[in-house]
Write a structure and sequence with these properties.
The complex is a heterodimer of chains A (135) and B (214).
Chain A lengths: L1 E2 L4 H17 L7 H22 L2 E2 L6 H12 L4 H19 L7 H25 L5
Antiparallel strand pairs in A: 1-2
Helix pairs in contact in A: 1-2, 2-3, 2-4, 2-5, 3-4
Chain B lengths: L12 H11 L6 E2 H8 L7 H9 L3 E6 L2 E6 L6 H10 L3 H9 L6 E7 L13 E7 L3 H15 L3 E6 L1 H10 L2 H8 L3 E4 L2 H8 L7 H8 L1
Parallel strand pairs in B: 5-6
Antiparallel strand pairs in B: 1-3, 2-3, 4-5, 4-7
The chains are: A mainly alpha (135), B alpha+beta (214).
Chain lengths: 135, 214
């Protein structure tokens, strides 16, 4: 991870990725794996928003996703619990992406969708409180 | 990557479960028949291993009338190391049970499957865990992180509602069918509980599901 100030435009672009991912997750007849994948992508992007707003950039190679959630927790310890959850989701996402299909349950996919939506609201509140110029 | 079963290289399989029951619960004293019942074996099959472990100072032996009791000896010079080895291998179920204890009333059934359940684990094997009930991944993520640190293994949970698990089991979902047909290490609940979740023979039953798995 390297120190690097963020620009609001960058965060606006990332917010666009989040919105698209959450919208795609609502597609009809989408598999639980697919829904989980879109929501995970949104969650990771939201974590990136927090890390970037805090003035850091995680290296994209060599465990970028893992390091993003570690950096989220470092940016604010209040995110430690959700960070642990998203890291669990990271491992599951790797499993269905590379090893085996249909390993995500409907319960897990629905939970991630709900938690990601809540996290989006929490990130917005965090930015307003800590980095209002980035909202 | 080594293909040898880790604990088999160090401890004979016949003693592994004895050690897990004793060394990982050092405060507990076992009457031989109780230990045999716990391990689902005949008492006579434990005699030799118990004697060797007592002679070696790993277990303490106490006679009370006609009864003989065994418990771990914490004064054994390698007790801490042995405990750590067991916790990471055959003792993992107890570690998982402990971290999931706060959620026990919300979990109908939980079991380890995959290479670890088949005792085919190698040094880098993850612990694959299925939980069926009213608990979510978000709730158990932090406790399972604790388990990961204690076991020095990645723990990969999959959470299902009882309804979804039963539906997928009955419909022949390939992943669930495969899991049901293979070895399991129960953390919460038992085969009986799993049978109740899936339903009786009229609902497709365990026998039918496992037959389809071939």
């Amino acid at each position: 991870m390297a120190a690097e100030p963020a620009l609001k435009q960058e965060l606006d672009d990332l917010r666009g990725v989040v919105a698209r991912s959450l919208q795609d997750a609502k597609a009809i007849n989408l598999s639980a794996d697919g829904k989980f994948g879109f929501c995970y992508n949104a969650a990771r992007t939201l974590a990136t928003i927090v890390v970037r707003a805090a003035g850091y950039r995680v290296k994209s190679h060599g465990g970028g996703h893992y390091n993003t959630f570690l950096a989220l927790e470092a940016a604010d310890p209040a995110f430690a619990t959700i960070s642990a959850y998203f890291d669990t989701c990271r491992v599951k996402r790797n499993e269905f992406s590379y090893d085996e299909a249909d390993v995500v349950s409907e319960k897990e996919a629905d939970e991630l969708e709900s938690k990601t939506a809540q996290f989006a609201a929490d990130v917005k509140a965090w930015l307003q409180a800590n980095h209002p110029g980035m909202v | 990557m080594r293909k040898t079963k880790v604990l088999d290289a160090i401890v004979p399989p016949s003693r592994q479960r004895i050690l897990a029951a004793t060394v990982l619960q050092p405060e507990r004293e076992w009457y031989v028949s109780d230990l045999a019942s716990h391990l689902a074996v005949r008492p006579s099959s434990l005699q030799r291993d118990l004697a060797r472990l007592a002679e070696g100072g790993v277990l303490r032996r106490r006679r009370d009338g006609n009864r003989v009791y065994f418990k771990a000896d914490p004064d054994c010079p390698i007790f801490p190391e042995l405990r750590q080895i067991l916790a990471k291998t055959v003792g993992l179920v107890d570690v998982l049970r402990e971290v999931l204890a706060p959620f026990a009333t919300s979990i109908h059934c939980a079991f380890v499957y995959g290479s670890v359940a088949r005792l085919e684990e190698v040094t880098e094997s993850d612990v694959d865990l299925i939980l069926i009930g009213n608990v979510g991944l978000a709730e158990i993520a932090a406790p399972l992180r604790t388990a990961r640190e204690r076991l020095a293994r990645q723990v990969n949970p999959s959470v299902y509602s009882a309804t979804e698990f039963a539906k997928k089991a009955r419909s022949g979902h390939h992943f669930i069918t495969k899991v049901l047909a293979r070895e399991k290490l129960f953390v919460i609940g038992s085969e009986h509980d799993l049978d109740e979740i899936i339903g009786g023979e009229a609902g497709g039953g365990r026998a039918g599901i496992e037959a389809r798995a071939g």
